[in-house]
Amino acid sequence: MAVTDETLRLIADSRRTLSQLTDQQARALVGAWVASWDELLPEYEASIAELLEDAVDGKVSAAKVRANSRLRQALEVTRANLDGLQDAANVTITTDLPEVINLGGSTTAGVAASQLPPAHAGILVAWDSVSPEAIAAMVERTTERIHSLTKPIPADTVRLMKRELIRGISVGANPRETARRIIKRTEGQFNGGLNRALVIARTETLDSFRAGALASAKKNTDILNGWRWSCSLSGRTCGACLSMHGQEFPVDAPGPEGHPSCRCARVDITRSWADLGFDIPEPEDTFPDAREWYEGLTPDSQADILGKSRRDLLASGDIKWEDLATRKQNPGWRPSYQETPLKDLVKAE
Fold first, then answer.
1. Which domain does 344 fall in, by range?
2. What is the pTM of this model?
3. What distances in angstroms separate CA 124 from CA 71, 168, 227, 281, one per listed residue?
4. How far is CA 322 from the centre of its chain?
5. What's the rounded Cα separation, in Å, for the pair 91 and 240?
6. pLDDT in tens, 59-118
7. Which of 72, 101, 121, 335 is the most buried (most CB within 10 A)?
8. Is the pLDDT of residue 348 over 60?
9. Closest CA relative to residue 159, chosen from 78, 86, 69
10. For the chain, what is the domain count?
11. Which residues contact 253 (CB under 8 A, 6 or more apart)?
12. Does residue 343 share a domain with residue 318?
């Protein structure tokens, strides 16, 4: 049950593979959104120019913005484009699901093998992999969830763009500058749909990997004893993931149930060599200690991860390491461990 250097290498390899895959998804989504906005931009520029021509005392009323037929047409085309982008996002994300689920299962088998005596790895000959039927069922469930999560994007994005446009356009002394400002803000709302799609893509892809690992682990409880939460010990980690690092869970527990886009990994742990029938001493466990790693950072680096206030509360002993993460219920999705709000930490002090 000792995590070895080989175990950590396998986890690092799986992280890199998933990162490459989600980066490819991101490039495809960004490219599609950029192309769509480039197509829409001339219509919005023309619509706003038309509206500014009718400005009275430097302003265009919300009623005139609503009544502008060219702008209404631009919003209708935007909604159609976003419908197409939603469909494209669903295809981009779901195409990789079988591969990702398989990767989760094979990684679990490799991680287990890395913790067994080299001369006795044959114990894994009987390792039960995830069946094609089970993978198909997981893909179907995940696809339904992805479609449900992306469905609101077109309507919500158009609503936000429309609200931005009808706030009232103040022309002032420089109508061209006003037009640029409106275009920039409207584009920002349009790209809000892209940001949501990127989060959904990354989160659901990583969760599919974890689902494959869980399914594989549950079929091999005679070898496995549970799993540990493993975060990426780097400046990009957050306080919640850092505090969860190293915590142990039963074999059949899903996870890591991190925040959206969480990069944390599940490290399955075998039963002790004695329990598996090997009468030989086990090597020393090499699983890294997150608190030790954190304490080795400079105060500034600690603040970059936790924020200065959380860092100071932890350093003074006013809060505990485990206080940094809070399990949050998320209707329509799943529970997730997220950073405890600072106001709650101060309140509990």
1. 222-349
2. 0.88
3. 64, 68, 18, 20
4. 22
5. 32
6. 777 788 888 888 889 999 999 999 999 999 999 999 999 999 999 999 998 999 899 887
7. 101
8. no
9. 78
10. 2
11. 226, 227
12. yes
